[in-house]
């Protein structure tokens, strides 16, 4: 039976690339979600029998419920959920606008959780499914002015690593994709930017001023990224838990994690000194 993919944020970037790949395959159905129906006109070139266009703002529970029920009605299942919709934010921590930061958390973290909760009952019933989260290289390492964006993606990592354990016995896989900078609208119209006013942070201003307002010259190729994501789900016996993509994710992520491992190891004595008794076979909190 054909697998059904539901992808959020298919108006542009990774979501649009992935939607076109799924739509072009014989044996996959596509539920393409966007905030505006007209943004999905590009799908009209594909077989409409295997495509359902739906409106989803991931912060809107009733749109999510309605879209998931329409998808289920048309295709009977949802086999792959791609939590792709997301925003960026460029600012030093101290100068960040907390309303904008809260909204980014609504989309990047709670929106992703809203979608997952709407689809999990279907996947639990069918005892199979894959949940793909567009995390970021900035959930493996960090950069000045990207702190609150990283915080949303680190939140996604902690959420997903826990969910994976809870649903593993139900036949449901959870894959986090951690792309490096790629040529989408993410750092353009999908990001608010606050150039530092505080003189102590002037050195970080350049990195924000030079962020393009449109598609950047970042090395990541969105089409290649979408192809890798598709192939890891459809052509791979073992679905990865993590998929770091691009040099920054690979080298920056490894460097940061190696530092963390070495720091944890160097604190072994003090770390183990704070328990009253030695740990048994299992951790107890
Ligand atoms: N490009 C990168 O360098 C990069 C690197 C690592 C991770 N990521 C992540 O990749 C994901 C996709 O971003 P992208 O790079 O493809 O950027 P993009 O081209 O700007 O696409 C972002 C998508 O998210 C949608 N979206 C924003 N807010 C939404 C909401 N409230 N509800 C539903 N959809 C919403 C946008 O829809 P509208 O058109 O309606 O605004 C758009 O379809 C994001 O989660 C981003 O954080 C990007």
From TrEMBL:
What EC class does the entry list? oxidoreductase
The Enzyme Commission number assigned here is: 1.1.1.-, 1.1.1.304, 1.1.1.76
- Span of the secretion signal? none
Keywords attached to this Swiss-Prot or TrEMBL record, sorted alphabetically, are: Oxidoreductase
Which InterPro entries does UniProt cross-reference here? Answer: NAD(P)-bd_dom_sf, Sc_DH/Rdtase_CS, SDR_fam, SDR_oxidoreductase
CDD domains in the cross-refs: 17beta-HSD-like_SDR_c (cd05374)
Q: Which family does it belong to?
A: Belongs to the short-chain dehydrogenases/reductases (SDR) family.
Q: Indicate what this protein is called per its UniProt record.
A: Dehydrogenase/reductase SDR family member 7C
**Protein's organism:** Companilactobacillus bobalius
């Amino acid at each position: 039976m054909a697998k059904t993919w539901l992808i959020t944020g298919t108006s542009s970037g990774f979501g649009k690339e992935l939607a076109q790949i799924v739509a072009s395959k014989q044996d996959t159905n596509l539920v393409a979600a966007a905030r505006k129906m007209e943004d999905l006109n590009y799908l009209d070139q594909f077989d409409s029998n295997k495509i359902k266009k739906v409106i989803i703002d991931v912060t809107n529970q009733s749109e999510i419920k309605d879209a998931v029920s329409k998808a289920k009605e048309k295709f009977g299942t949802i086999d792959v959920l791609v939590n792709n919709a997301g925003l960026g934010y460029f600012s030093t921590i101290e100068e960040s606008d907390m309303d904008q930061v809260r909204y980014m958390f609504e989309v990047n973290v709670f929106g992703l959780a809203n979608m997952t909760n709407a689809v999990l009952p279907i996947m639990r019933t069918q005892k199979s499914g894959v949940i793909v989260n567009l995390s970021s290289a900035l959930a493996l390492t960090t950069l000045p002015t990207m702190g609150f964006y990283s915080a949303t993606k680190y939140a996604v990592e902690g959420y997903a690593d826990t969910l994976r354990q809870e649903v593993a016995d139900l036949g449901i896989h959870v894959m986090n994709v951690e792309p490096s900078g790629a040529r989408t609208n993410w750092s353009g119209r999908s990001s608010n930017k606050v150039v530092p006013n505080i003189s102590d942070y002037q050195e970080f201003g350049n990195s924000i001023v030079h962020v393009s307002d449109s598609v950047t010259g970042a090395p990541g190729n969105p089409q290649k990224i979408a192809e890798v994501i598709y192939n890891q789900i459809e052509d791979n016996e073992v679905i990865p838990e993590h998929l770091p993509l691009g040099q920054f994710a690979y080298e920056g992520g490894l460097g940061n994690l190696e530092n963390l491992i070495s720091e944890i190891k160097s604190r072994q004595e003090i770390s183990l000194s704070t328990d009253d008794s030695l740990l048994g076979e299992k951790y107890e909190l």
